[in-house]
Amino acid sequence: MSQQPPVPAGGGGEFLHAFLLDPARHSPGAPAVIESARAGRITTTTYAELGTLVDRYAADLDALGIETGARVVLESGATAHSLALLLACSRAGLAFIPVSPEIPQQRLLSIVATARPALHLQPPDGARTDLPDSVGTARFGPTGLTVERAPERRTPRRRVPCATDPAYIIFTSGTTGRPKGVVMSHRAVIAFYRGMLAHRIATPEDRIAATSPLHFDFCLLTIGLALGSGAGVVPVPQGLVRWPRHLLRVLRETGATQVHGVPSIWRQTLRHEPERLAALDRLRGILFCGEEFPLPELRSLQRLRPDARIINCYGATESMACSFKEVPNPLPDTVERLSIGIAHPGAEMLLVDGDGAVVEKPGLPGEIHLRSPALFSGYWDDPAATRSALVPDPLCPQSGQLVLRTGDLAVQGANGEFFFHGRTDSQVQINGNRVELGELERQLAEFPGATAATAMALPQPEGGLQLAAFVVLTAEEGARTAPAEVRAFCARALPPYMVPQDIYLLDRLPTTTNGKVDRAALAETAGAGRPGTAPA
To answer: Cα–Cα distance between 417 and 413 in angstroms, integer?
Structure first.
């Protein structure tokens, strides 16, 4: 058995596991994770018990002899055991890569080929079986790790973990047609957590519901806020988040005091279960992120829970987030756009115009650039994309300091706060998930017989966006292809949130006078259901 990598003296708090398990020192009996997978069955894991799980999993990982700095794929929903396992990876000096159990095989194999992980982990009921022989496989549960195929043992080149090592890699949609890995170091994650905790959003008495999946960095934000505050985290199973009555049942039975999630999780609840939502008298905090909250729905939420503190969280996966702004209560009727505030303590946002000059006057648009100790290290194995996102500080390029070019447009108000005004590129947010339209279009273009394809995010009548795809096929393929076949083709390679809800098979893509795809005409086609189109 190899020795567990030592934590450098005095640096323990700079590692993910040490920071998030700190409450175990002074409140070992406090609830750390509260789960309610089924009605009437609550499972509580205390901080002491969570620490014991982390110790067990870290020892099992150490016994496998995996080199410090190696990657581990964690394919699981958010549970006490998966949370303990990601903290155990931190303790063992390994970077974890969270992926969804719903991830298509083709996409997972693309991530495996890119990241070259040493080990793939899943719970006992995980269905993944067909992975390359170069990757070790194991299952995790109450008794520890059950190894199915041991990872390859190699002569270690590293033994001591550093706070600048990757803590995790999250793969998002990428413009090149393959998933893009955002690498976050321990130091960056802890810097963000400290900046977030300075807002005093939570107390040790809180129970914070995490409604985002584990592979979404918003879930890691919630975990960090909860455990970093000594509070309890309530991971809501994804199968329950989608159903208002089940979601409200979990919140009620676990005594959740805060709910974190993308705005769209509230849409069906506001429409179908307003009385049950109003009855959640312990709910006093709501934090949303990932997309804009439709103002009519936000006002409805305030009317049903008038005593709840609602916080608008803004930021990118490349910094986890960067600002937290409390929504005025009640929200004035004159408000047309929510403020995203200013960057959290220790960070700073500034605006840069199209000529590279810093925007100094209020009301003028610019692209948000973020100066922060919480920036990602880079995109995994993609130096060109990294150079385009981490750019020299426009205020002092001579310093060598890099800032994050976010791709988000904003204007600054008279009092210094920022207002989000969209994207500079083809990236869109679907239920809080980042989607590069270029990646979807590449998949559509690979459909047999496709001669042209484009994708758009179209507004839904009830709020939010949904993906629509417009595909031109050869005459032979067009005569025998149904839109559902194109959707199924996409679903084999893309995660569910990237699969277009509506597929339109066209004879040609309309163009503008300068030869570009006429997106306004396509939106009209989708809205009118014109003859000659075939929505799925």
So the answer is: 5
